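Record pair follows.
FIRST:
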Amino acid sequence: MSRPSRRALPGFGLSLGLALIWLGLIVIIPLGALALKPWELGPGGVVEVLLEGRTLAALRLSFGAALLAAGLAVPLGLLFAWVVVRYRFPGRRLLDAAVDLPFALPTAVAGLALTALFAPNGWLGAPLEAWFGWKVAFTPAGIVVALVFVALPFAARTVEPVLRDLPPDMEEAAATLGATRAQALWRVVLPSLLPAMVTGFALGFARAVGEYGSVIFIAGNMPMVSEIAPLLILVKLEQFDYAAAAAVGLAMLLLSFVILLALNLLQRRLRRAAA
């Protein structure tokens, strides 16, 4: 007499089915529609839309600013995590909570606040322009500032738990072998944190590349100068050019996938090297 099979997860078939249904409704079907819509223009029309000067400038700005912002957010997030984890000082808990503000703050509110700070008559914008001649608001530099603001929490929160679990014995052993503080940081601590830093970079980039609310107010939105790709998509939607908007969205999707795939492969290689 055969015994009834017992699965490790009760209701696995039903759970898997519901998960696949929700995945199809929320992810696969919308992405499929995005992939099919541009071809209403034909292959030549899609190429024409993507090679248009305004489209190339918007894509270049969105991806360039997102990569730069993620690159700036990683060392800033590492510095923040180091201070919070390794030091004890009054207000540490408040500082630890403040880094999560971009998660809770509506992006439009963040954009308005950053614009007020970095405008030519703002608290930070006025002295920067008067002392150094730097104009931040309504330029590509303002876009980078806004994207660093939204990417920083991802970099900090990704590195922080790894830094907490990093045993101090490694640094002490390096010190007993004659390594300076900088050498111990460079050769012992950073290699252990590098996979987490790559993850933080990837998450920050993924968050920044499609950002709209916090960028739209500070960007200036000048075509060919400070117009981001999400805004260009919105412009084409307002013109009822849905196929062209989908073409730009599909280009963003493919470029983001290639970059994130490369970062994932790099992270996997770093983890194998550290093992």
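SECOND:
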Amino acid sequence: MSGRLAEVGQHLATTRELGVVVGAMRSIAAARVQEARQQLDGVRAYAETLGTAIGEALALLPEPQRPAAGEAGHGQGLVLALCAEQGFVGGFNERVLDAALACRSGSAGQLWLLGERGGLGAQERGLQPDWTAPMAVHLDEVPALAGRLAEALYARLGEGAATRVTLVHAQPGRPGVLARPLLPFDYGRFAVSRRAQAPHITLAPERLIIGLADEYLYAELCEALVLSFAAENEARMQAMVAAQGNVEQRRSELLAEFRRVRQDEITEEIVELSASRL
């Protein structure tokens, strides 16, 4: 009987330790979600400022010379999906991959993936992404990652391997996955702003508009990465909440079994002591 008691006690101690680990992971994920929400305001303010500048720069050109609105067309598409780098995120990657495959134009469309766990999920589906890279695991990695993404996308479009890019990522607080066109750049979404006095510029308007568009694309990628980062950690936090509930339930079951086995052991000892005195 003492062997069984020791075994249950060991399981109970392990469950306590597991509960501490799960609680710590939940706290870390919650802190990262909050940090991402705070960073998001700055990224969006930056994008809004760039959008205003693009509208003012467009006003410097006569209407026939302004860039096209950026119709997607019917060329080969590229889908960039932002998945999770680390595990314990429930069905997060499956939802993103489902949305990415729905956007891909058949087997000919290219699939780019961020996140090691997303890559593993793609392999389980028999998919071979055309390009992969690690997803940011800390917010301070986002600016550099957005820069590398922009360079890689422009390089691929410059090679003629793709003519349009769709960005797919999750959002915190929302069950669905967002899929939106990223390239060709859509200038039509910016209201042309006319000042009473034209701004002083040191570049040709065409070059200025292209430079602002590149910077706006960078801001869009930063926003998507921060949103995906927040959504990933929100999914991890929810998974840890469920895990914590399961751990508590298992701990209660083990504690009840420990008490029962201990009581049986005490009863057996009393019976043995009583029999030895007869």
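COMMENT: Residues 80 and 112 are 5 Å apart (CA to CA).
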